[in-house]
Fold this sequence. Notes:
The protein has 562 residues and is of the alpha/beta class. It is 40% helix and 17% strand. The strands form five sheets. It has a six-stranded mixed β-sheet, sandwiched between helices. It starts with a strand and ends in a 5-residue tail after the last strand.
Amino acid sequence: MKTILTTLNAKYIHTSSALRWLYIANKNRFDISFKEFIIKDNLHKIAAELLALKPDVIGLCVYIWNVEQSLKLTAILKSQKPSLILIAGGPEVSYEPEFFLEKGGVDFVISGEGEFVLGDLLSAISNNLSGDFSRICIESVSHVHYINKTIAKADLKKLAEMPSPYQLDEDRENRYVYFETSRGCPYQCQYCLSALEKGIRFFPLEYVFQNLEYLLHKNARQVKFTDRTFNLNPKRTLAVFDFLIAHYKPGISFQFEIYADLLTEEIINHLNTVLPPHFFRFEIGIQSTNEPTNHAIKRFQNFDLVTERIQKLREGHKVDLHLDLIAGLPFESFELFTKSFNDVFALRAKELQLGFLKLLRGTSLRRDAELHGYQFNPLAPYEILSSKYLSEGELQRLQFAEFALDTYWNSGKFKHTMQSLIDKTNKDCYFELFDEMGQSFKKNPLPEQGYLLEDVFLHLHQFLLSKGIDLFAELRKDYYSCFKIRPHGFWENRMDKKTRKRLLYQIANDKQFLKIYGLERKTIEKQAVIDEIDDNGYMLTVFCNDGSRENPLFLFYPPKEK
């Protein structure tokens, strides 16, 4: 009996750790393999590829980002091979197995962690060659004759004794890795599926260190820890941090989900002292600063303490910070969300993600949707459309603000411009700025497809000018910073080609200037652009690609004495 495990990842660079664990746990007992696709792949081609392998059983990992495509895929597979046995697992199907057995055309649903449950199910299937599965009764496995919603929990110590899912030969070229040191969550956030789990379990530290060392040696570029709250245990947290710092390697970064209230001053001071810059990235979910909202979603935090911890991390200039907000939570109106946004943006994190409430299957907020007047999309990701607290128009307005936030702040492409603009903005009006930007996009939208970077820069320049703000010099600097070779500008160049060529020739032959900055004549001639600042001189932008210095390099060049 041949089994193929598969899933549809969100992006090509992503990999499914669940498929790898399922494969590792069962490869010595069954004829089993796995194959990954992405959600943009043609479903008929995916089905053809899978069926060409002549499987008897296909197992699908189903998530919020791929559930709609997965349902369509199961229909295609069943229509082309009715005898095929389909097993669905993953967080999207675990809590409402009846729905997916009825609508998804699957034969079995596994609820929870399936490493060991899958083996039990495959054994039961192989022992029922007649195809009569009505008598199969396995905990955490549902079929049309038997529903069992027990959420399976794998024994992590047993998993750690198996070959590592992070060291498979077929993954040697993977640069983006999901890594876990624990499973479960102690918190009860009402919008999150993790709130339905009880307790937290840890992989042995020795196992964690062994696999992290392997990933560091195999040239991974980014490792994202999937632990719901990485820093629950301060001693264990510090041990992992210290291990990574001791094995520091340039060109790789590690991302952690952090609960800021639990960050100790000892850990922050330690990181600010010994951590190489940009080696760690902390994702900190704040979600709201409105206390009635936090109480309703059972998310308890001390925002004053959170602020203090984040400010200390920022002062160290070592950890990249990503903060999260959720729009649409109970009891948070447009005005109250504006305050939450301004409170959190004032912390000046590198990124602020503005997400929108999604009523996930199995969560308490979905169950209580009527209580809060939630109208939501019945299709994944089940995003809310309106509520007692936010109208449909207000939510759409927030979505435009989110687009502006992502484009001009989170992208990191407008550092000089946004820093100057934010410094001029009242601390209670950050949201109003992005709201205005969003409304500008609404009135003058970019093309849905195929717009250029120049278009985005020009849009911001025109928006600022409409408000009487001239930040052209900063915009030009940011624009050049997006390139490794000299580009065409988004502005109309006021310097004619002959003058520009003459000035670059003059600088290329200024031996004293070249010596001061360690530049060569050919670098100026081939890899530099010059712009007039004013009557006082020029800005020379040099695109240095040797990795030895800042790129691009911005230099002031004085006017030639008359």
